[in-house]
Design brief:
By secondary structure, the protein is of the alpha+beta class. The protein has a domain of about 200 residues: 2-Layer Sandwich (Alpha-Beta Plaits). The protein contains seven helices and six strands; from the N terminus they run H-H-H-H-E-H-H-E-E-E-H-E-E. Strands 1, 2, 3, 4, 5 and 6 form a six-stranded mixed β-sheet that branches. A hairpin with a 6-residue loop joins strand 3 and strand 4. Helix 3 packs antiparallel against helix 6 and helix 4 packs parallel to helix 6. The longest helix has about 50 residues. The chain is elongated and about 130 Å long. The relative contact order is 0.10.
């Protein structure tokens, strides 16, 4: 039996449909999929480059060499803990070196040379009187070494801090009842700056002091320098050194006073006070304030 004439043209039509479908798929592949693949590759390239850079940095840095993705959460937690500890240390340091409110306001206020010189004179007189009552030899080089304004003084407001630190240092020496206070010298300031942006955080104001006396009074002086408030009860000076600021010992040289007096020493100290400057530097006075 021969096929009917109506069914004969179906096969060419089916082939044409298959060919057309294949052609459309090929067009979609090259025009659509390949285009999308190129776009995906272009979007993926920066991520791949960043990952390669991260991997290279990870291998070249001693701190992260060999660090895998599995270790990142643990390292991140350790970094957070270190940041919290650093914040706590910063808080403790800030509290430790915080100046009395009155002194901080005095530093930031416009500097008045007459007020400062009057206060410097009053302090010198009171120190001499206290030394006399304590039977401590107090040489003129000490009061002459109290901070004074000179044409080289860049920030005269900091003289108030220098004067306060010198007062605390000399009062500590006198109340420790050393045998003699021989000389006080103001040393150049030292700026402590941020390692990130270079701004000043603290201004260090160092002083050089020479004292002599028995080993026990000198030891009491050295022990009391970094103490403040109730901490001074350890040296029995809490009742006389009220509102004392913290002072830092940078240098110490001890010598025997004489071969026949082994219990007496001569001490040369370099002591510093710190002025926090995070709120900005002290005010500068007009030029006419300098006599």
């Amino acid at each position: 039996m021969e096929p009917s004439a109506a069914s004969t043209p179906r096969r060419p039509i089916l082939l044409e449909v298959l060919l057309l479908g294949t052609l459309l798929l090929a067009i979609l592949y090259f025009a659509g999929f390949q285009s999308l693949a190129r776009r995906a590759d272009a979007l993926d390239r920066p991520l791949r480059q960043a990952w390669e850079s991260f991997a290279a940095t990870n291998q070249s840095s001693e701190a992260t060499a060999g660090l895998s993705l599995d270790q990142l959460p643990e390292v991140l937690e350790a970094l957070r803990g270190s940041a919290a500890e650093l914040a706590e240390v910063r808080r403790l340091v800030s509290e430790r070196v915080r100046l009395p409110v009155a002194l901080a306001e005095q530093i930031r206020a416009p500097f008045q040379i007459i007020d400062y010189e009057n206060e410097r004179t009053r302090l010198a007189e009171s120190l001499v009187a206290l030394a006399r009552s304590k039977k401590v030899a107090f040489e003129p080089a000490v009061t002459n070494g109290l901070p004074a304004r000179t044409p080289e003084t860049a920030e005269p407001g900091l003289l108030w801090a220098r004067l306060a630190f010198a007062r605390e240092l000399l009062l500590t020496a006198l109340h420790s009842q050393v045998g003699a206070v021989r000389e006080l010298t103001q040393l150049p300031p030292v700026s402590h700056r941020s390692a990130v942006d270079g701004r000043r955080l603290f201004e260090e104001l160092p002083m050089r002091l020479e004292v002599a006396g028995g080993l026990e009074p000198v030891q009491r002086l050295l022990t009391s320098l970094p103490l403040a408030g109730a901490e001074l009860e350890a040296t029995d000076l809490a009742s006389v050194l009220t509102n004392k600021t913290v002072l830092f010992l940078n240098h110490l040289l001890l010598r025997k006073a004489a071969p026949d007096r082994p219990g007496e020493v001569q001490a040369e100290l370099i002591v510093s006070g710190l002025v926090p400057l995070e709120a900005g530097p002290p005010s500068r006075p007009p030029a006419e304030d300098f006599p």
